[in-house]
Amino acid sequence: MNKITFAGFFLLSAVSHISHAVQDKPYHHESQIDYISSSEDFSNGKWALQYRYFQEAVNQETVPYALSGFLAQTSNIGGQYVGFGDDDTRYDIDGTYVFDSKWFIGLGYQKTDINDASHLALINRYNTLGTDSKTYAITGGYYLNKSTEIYLAYQYNDGEQSSTAYHTDMTGHYYRLGLRTLVPMTVTEGIYIDASYQYADTELQYSGAYTGKTTQNSNNFNLTADWYFTPSWSVGGYYHTDDSNSDNDDYGIGTAYFLRLNDVLSARINVVKQFEPDLDGVYGNLSVNARF
From CA 73, how far away is CA 67, in angstroms rounded? Predict the structure, then answer.
């Protein structure tokens, strides 16, 4: 059974469980399987599996479904595995502890092993640093109110990349200051905003046909905004700028839908069209989500 047939069968099987009396019960566990691909080469998509446990029950009855975990403001731990075929994989684990004072602290680890360069564009869209690399992260922040958090994060990345001509060792220090919030609106559910500033200090050490070392400092700004017209449907866009290279600025628009099937299962779709740099087709993922 090929990937397209399996993905279609899986989603249709989930849809067959649709109930007209779906109850949005609180949940502690959330798991999800994703099929990540593009319209230009849908059959060559990648699979991802993720799971998260929340210490306190998460309410999903009065908030946008996709934001319920963020708005719960409770301690949690989870991880993700992404398989890209052959030996190309990525996995990560992270956890956040929330104090009674609404301060929080989080730790994370990510390991990426990529041998096929054709996978890099897809992988980088999902926040992977480097080619074959390890990333360690620590985050601290505070919840300003029931729908807003500010945070300061540090990441250390240690990676390498090899070719027939030379080998490159890559190290990087990344400092990020960010804010995430859901701005309530009178008619619709509200506008979700994720804005951050990042300072990056990276070093590349070359050996082989070319030997040398380069260092680079850069300032990055990232902005994502999603307007939730209903608890299930949102439309938004993103913008990223990097002052180390004007060609690194990118932006696009997208839409997402969260379809509740029964008390446990949901189907999700997320589609993004990138305009700069210009890429053919659209990227996105089809997902089956379980909350219990």
Answer: 11
Structure tokens at 54: 């929340």
DSSP character for 243? T
CA 183, CA 189: separation in Å to the nearest integer?
A: 9
Helix or strand holding residue 138 (H, E) = strand 132-145
Alpha-carbon distance 63 to 61, whole Å? 6
Q: How far apart are CA 75 and CA 55, in angstroms?
A: 5
> What's this model's pTM, rounded to 2 decimal places?
0.85
- H/E segment holding residue 178: strand 166-183
Residue 118 has pLDDT above 60, yes or no: no
* Other Cβ atoms within 10 Å of 219 Cβ, number: 12
Dmax (CA) for the chain in angstroms is 66
Average pLDDT, the chain: 86
Token pair for 177: 């200051």
Sign of the CA dihedral with 33 first, then 31, 288, and 134 last: negative
Confidence of residue 245 (pLDDT cuts 50, 70, 90): low
Torsions phi, psi of 248, nearest 5? -85, -10
Q: Please give the single-letter amino acid code of residue 45.
A: G
Q: Is a pLDDT exceeding 70 seen at residue 38? A: yes
Alpha-carbon distance 34 to 53, whole Å?
Answer: 18
* pLDDT above 90 (res 8): no
Residue 120 is classified by DSSP as H
Contact predicate 60/69, CB 8 Å: no
